[in-house]
């Protein structure tokens, strides 16, 4: 288990503990409201409302902790590098590597054995961008 997952687990334990304490205090307050009603004959609406609200909030928070967080939809885009030979025009595409830049000298051309250079760097457009481009034209 990594350190960050241990920190998350510890935070969850503290959070659940706080929710349980909140729920217990709310139940005690609710019981006090019923006791006041039985002994004195009037309803303490403030205590009753606050305790029911706190219990509802506690249950909701526990249920939310069990659900998985929604995906944000942000993914790292795929970036590609186009390598071209200036002599014979041979062109190949590969995944982007750290340190790539345009006009950087690359490997030797497999056809004519002359040096190649990075001609272009681009990222692959996702489906949403393609739809947006169609509607913008």
Main sheet record: 4 strands, antiparallel
How many discrete structural domains?
Answer: 2
Order of helices and strands: HHEEEEH
> What would you call the shape?
rod-shaped
Strand order of the largest sheet: 2-1-4-3
Uncertain spans: none
Tally the helices: what do you get?
Answer: 3
Determine the strand fraction and express it as a percent band: 15-25%
Give the fraction of residues assigned to helices: 40-55%
Q: What do the pLDDT scores average to?
A: 83
Helical/strand content category: alpha+beta
Rg over alpha carbons:
32 Å
Number of strands: 4
CA-CA gap between termini: 51 Å
Feature tags:
137 residues, alpha+beta, four-stranded antiparallel beta sheet, 3 helices, 4 strands
Topology:
Elements: H1 3-40, H2 45-66, E1 79-85, E2 91-95, E3 105-108, E4 115-123, H3 127-136
Antiparallel strand pairs: 1-2, 1-4, 3-4
Describe this protein's structure.
It is a single chain. This protein is of the alpha+beta class. It has 2 domains: 64 residues; 58 residues. The chain has 3 helices and 4 strands. Strands 2-1-4-3 form a 4-stranded antiparallel β-sheet, with no helix packed on it. α1 packs antiparallel against α2. It is rod-shaped and about 100 Å long. The mean pLDDT is 83.
């Amino acid at each position: 288990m990594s350190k960050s997952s241990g920190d998350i687990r510890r935070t969850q334990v503290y959070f659940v503990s706080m929710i349980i304490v909140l729920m217990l205090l709310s139940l005690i307050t609710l019981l006090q409201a019923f006791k006041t009603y039985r002994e004195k004959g009037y309803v303490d609406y403030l205590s009753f409302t606050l305790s029911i609200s706190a219990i509802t909030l506690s249950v909701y928070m526990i249920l939310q902790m069990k659900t998985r967080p929604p995906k944000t939809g942000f993914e790292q885009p795929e970036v590609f590098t186009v390598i071209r030979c200036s002599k014979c025009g041979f062109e190949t595409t590969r995944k982007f590597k750290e340190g790539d830049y345009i006009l950087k000298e690359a490997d030797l051309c497999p056809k004519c054995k002359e040096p190649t250079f990075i001609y272009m760097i681009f990222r692959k457009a996702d489906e949403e961008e393609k739809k947006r481009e169609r509607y913008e034209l």
